[in-house]
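re: ur question from yesterday

yeah so i grabbed the chain u mentioned. its 144 aa long if i counted rite. heres the sequnce exactly as i have it in my notes:
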Amino acid sequence: MIPDKSRLKQKIRSVEDARQEHVQSILQEHGPIRSGSLVKIIRKCGKPNCHCAAGQGHPTTYLSSKEGGRTRMVYVSSGVEADVGQQAQRYRHFRKHRASLAKLAQQSLDLIDQLQVALQTTEPVLPPKVARGVAKGVRKRRGR
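ran it thru and got these C-alpha cells back, copy pasting raw so excuse formatting
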C-alpha cells in the first residue's frame, strides 16, 4: 500500500521543525562544556586520630570521564566544583540534543524515501501523439 503523499509531506515538515528546535538549542550554548560527571566519594585519610577513622569519611569530588575506553577520575577542588558541575551539565544537554538530531535525521530520510515511493510513477512511457500524420513542430511546405 502506497502511503498518502500529503500526509508524508506533513510528517517531514514536523520532523524538520523538531530538528530546527534542537539545532537552535545547540546554537544557544555559549559556555564551555566538559565531558564527564561529578562524583562524590567518601574516603578515609588514614590518620588514626581523624574523625574518618571512626566511620564517617571525608567527601571528595571527582570528575569521572571516559578516555580511550577507560574511566578516568580527576580530583576537583571545592573552589571549582560548581563551575565544573555546570560545564558537565551543559555537556550532557549538548549530547542529548545531538542524539535527538541524529534520530530525527534518520526519521527524515526514511520519510523522504517513503515519499519517493509514493511519488514515483509506473505508467509506461508513450511516444508523443502525432497530429494528422505530422510530428509536432514540423510543417508541410505548400505550393511546391
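noticed a couple things. The chain has one domain: 5-119. also The CA atoms of residues 4 and 118 lie 7 Å apart.
anyway ttyl
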